[in-house]
Amino acid sequence: MRRVFVFLRHHRTAAYVSVCAAVLALTAPSARGAEQPPIRIGVLASESGTAAAAGHDMVTAWKLYWAEHGERVDGRRIESTFYDTGSNPARALTVARQAVEQDHVQMIVGPYLANEGLAVAPYAIQHKIPFLEPTVSADDLTQRKANPYVIRVAGWTSSQPTHPAGDWAYDKGYRTVVTIADAYAFGYENVGGFNQTFTARGGKVLKQIWAPLGNTDYSPYLSQIEAAKPDAVFVEMVGADAVHFLQQWHAFGLKDKIPLIANETTTDQSNIRTLPADVVDGIVSFGHFAEGRDAAATQEFDTNFAAKTGKLPSYMAAAFFTAAQWIDSAMLKVHGNVEDTDAFLAAVRSVRLADSAFGPMKLDTYNNPVENVYVRRVETVSGPLAKYGKTWNVVVKAYPNVSQFWNLAPQEYLKQPVYSPTFQGVKAP
Amino acid sequence: MTGRPWSNVAIIGALLLLAIAIPRLGLPAFYVSLLTQTWIYGILAMSLDLLVGFTGLVSFMQAAFFGIGAYVVAIAATRYHFTDFWLTLLIAILVAAVTAAAFAALALRAEDVGFIIITLALNEIIWGLAYQWVSMSGGDNGITGFLRVDVGPFHTTGNAGFYYLSLTALIVCLTLLTLIVRSPFGLVLVGARERPRRMAALGYNVWLFRYLALIVAAMFAAVAGVLFAYYNEFVGPGSLSLDTTVQILIMVILGGTGTLIGPLLGAGILVFLSNALSDITQRWVLILGAVYVVTVMYAPDGIVGLVKQLAARARSRHALAPAAGSMPSAALNPREGPER
User: Fold this and answer.
1) Which of A62, A171, A216, B142 could form a disulfide with A320 if both were Cys (CB 3.0 to 4.6 A apart)?
2) What integer pLDDT is reported at residue A428 of this predicted model?
3) Do A119 and B144 touch (CB under 8 A)?
4) Strands, DSSP E only, in A174-253?
5) In this predicted model, what pLDDT tens digit does every residue of A243-300 receive, in sequence order?
6) Residues A153 and A215 reside in one and the same domain
7) In A, which residues are within 8 Å of B145 by CB distance?
8) Residue B44 vs residues A203, A228, B40, B177, B270: alpha-carbon distances, Å
9) A328: domain range?
10) Which positions in chain B have a beta carbon within 8 angstroms of at least one beta carbon in chain A?
């Protein structure tokens, strides 16, 4: 030790420089030397931070697909590298840089959150890296900001499943609603979709409540809702917010009093699996995934996912599994030659899934899937999967082939701004 | 440091040459990216060090000024199609300074814990604006759709160009901050930190000096924010959240308060460690936490403090003169080192 300090004292400059050089030499990657290089896929998932649970589901489902189907396309190995976004857009951007600039991935799959996706998209576009998004639902990424490099494989837009919901609610006889949602982009867009179709038919939105993300006490809002006496309530909540909301909705006795129409995330399996059956039983919701859908593709995915993890899958898990399936078919079409980016992107766009965990899927010209939207109801799990969960979402009715533009022409739809607290799709009377 | 200024100059010169050479060493562009981040966070951490280390004010609102700098760039470019770098920088610094002038007046009504709480609350106000004022700030989604702009000789679209721009900004800020802390102004700040009553008795308006320090620090934070916005070509409310506040405070403490160079070192460690660790394990946040705890327990003066301490100990052992035994304890305290 002492000698080191003596050395340091006498040769400080040299020592500093050599230490720095050594660090640099150690951190530089060694040359790779395989004749047939693997296809490198960068998977961005939130493995830490607020969305860690979702990130974990996504990674598990992604690995599940490749474990089932073999990590090879036309003899070429597929190498998935996982990057933790920390549920933070700036960090998502940093790891995207790492994936592209250090690890030279040929495509990016993920991330999870809308704000992460919006942050990474411009970077991927600039570097001409296919940016494949199974869960990022920010409307504009395939609408006003659509780009050839951004494709929602097995994805959705925030307002896609809620357009039918507004229409359905009116048909059901509801004429007035109160909406309650998380005060952030996903909430604004999700609820906007509902409001637009509900009011287009002649329904009336009595009140819109925006609750801060991470809120735990909904009682003040619940009394506002009760006072407004609506025919029904539309709710959008994510994660722990959904759990708190559903608990309190039940505890305040509103569950049997006011019909509740939930969005996809509120009754997602990741939330209802933590709640007692009587709290969630019978709640109707709208989503592009229903783990209780009685179809071979969904049941097979449920069974394999449950066998591996001991629980039923969330929509995030289904999205990453199906994305892997989608990308696998596209890679097969170009015989593993993903280096030809244009041909690969064309192949991704041309994939048609006759059936998947979600149902049939194909892309529209804006790179968003045209897919089924399900009217779902929470029921007790039956059949062989009953040991893996208490309740699940079963299909009551399916709206087949729903476009992100609902029944409007894209050009017409895109004339309106993206949904926000100030624009909720409500036409002035 | 020791009485051999030429060796300090040599070290600084060598490090500077190394910093300049890095983009040309053929490293993956990603490392250049991470170093760029280090320079930017370095400026931010140094700005906080002016408060925590020299003025003795543990401010929790430094992230707000960082965010203000970043949002000025994004809002100017996307809402007003205004992309001149120098004017944007100037506006960002001014907006931060004006905000700081108002905030500091409120915060300085309290001391110690009260000061921390007020600054924390003020930071949350700016965060709330960024999060809720969707039509202006883009809310939770933040703002994208603006690009880096070339600045003088720096072609910033390339990694190397932006690296040099950030490095230049860092050197300018480090020089300015060094001049400030060594100026009579800086010495009054340190004096007011150690002996506020005596300084007041000597006729210094302690309140005013602290007030000015808060404004100056905010201006440097805004510079870092402007660079951060261009670097990411994206701005979101996360940049001014409590997370960022805590992160820069950790950088300062990890590197060593009251040293300027220490917080820069802390920034580098945090940026590189978090990336290296997250490559290895999902539990990287936990390991990072352990590193902080160990640092605070065994090197309360940060890494720079620890290095100085070890160097001083080695020197005293090495010295043959009996005087070595009576090494003054002052030499172990980095704060009382260079009084010139």
Assistant:
1) A62
2) 63
3) yes
4) 176-182, 204-211, 232-236
5) 999 999 999 999 999 999 999 999 999 999 999 999 999 999 999 999 999 999 999 9
6) no
7) 122, 145
8) 52, 49, 7, 12, 13
9) 39-157+299-371
10) 7, 10-11, 14-15, 18, 22, 25, 27-31, 33-34, 37, 131-132, 134-135, 139-142, 144-145, 159, 232-234, 236, 238-239, 243, 275, 278, 282, 284-285, 310-311, 314-315, 317-318
Beta-carbon separation of A119 and B318 below 8 A: no
Flag whether pLDDT at A27 surpasses 80: no
Judging contacts by C-beta atoms under 8 Å, the chain A residues touching residue B134 are: 185, 188, 420-422
Lowest mean pLDDT among A161-175, A355-369, B288-302: B288-302
Q: Smallest Cβ distance to A184: which of B18, B139, B232? A: B139
Residues A344, A378: one domain?
no
Please judge whether B318 and A84 are an interchain contact, meaning their C-beta atoms are less than 8 angstroms apart.
no
Name the domain count of chain A. 2
Q: Hey, what amino acid is at A336?
A: G
Backbone angles phi, psi at B4, to 5 degrees: -130, 75
Binned at pLDDT 50, 70 and 90, residue B320 comes out as low
Check which CATH number belongs to the domain holding A229 and give it.
3.40.50.2300
Same domain, B307 and B233: no
Give me the mean pLDDT over the A147-157 stretch.
95
Q: How confident is the model at residue A26 (pLDDT cuts 50, 70, 90)?
A: very low
Q: Which of B98, B200, B144, B272 is nearest to A123 (CA)?
A: B144
Domain count, chain B: 2
- Are A122 and B234 within 8 A, CB to CB? yes
Of A194, A184, A173, the residue nearest A263 (C-alpha): A194
C-beta atoms of B140 and A121 within 8 A: no
A191 part of a folded domain: yes
pLDDT tens per residue, range A225-255: 999 999 999 999 998 899 999 999 999 999 9
B28/A101 touch (CB, cutoff 8 Å), yes or no: yes
Give residue-wise pLDDT tens across range B17-38: 888 888 888 887 888 989 999 9
Query: Using CA atoms, how far apart are residues A92 and A132, in angstroms rounded to an integer?
Result: 14
Closest residue in B to A2 (Cα) is B314
Of the partner residues B28, B285, B311, the one whose CB lies closest to the CB of residue A29: B28
**Residue B300 DSSP class:** T
Cβ contact A411:A185 at 8 Å: no
Instruction: Quote the pLDDT of residue A20.
Output: 47
Average pLDDT of chain A to the nearest whole number: 90
Indicate yes or no: CB of B144 within 8 angstroms of CB of A86: no
* Residues forming beta bridges with residue A178, ordered by sequence position: A207, A233
Confidence of residue B134 (pLDDT cuts 50, 70, 90): confident
Nearest CA in chain B to A189: B141
Give the number of beta-carbon pairs within 8 Å between A and B.
124
d(CA A396, CA A358): 15
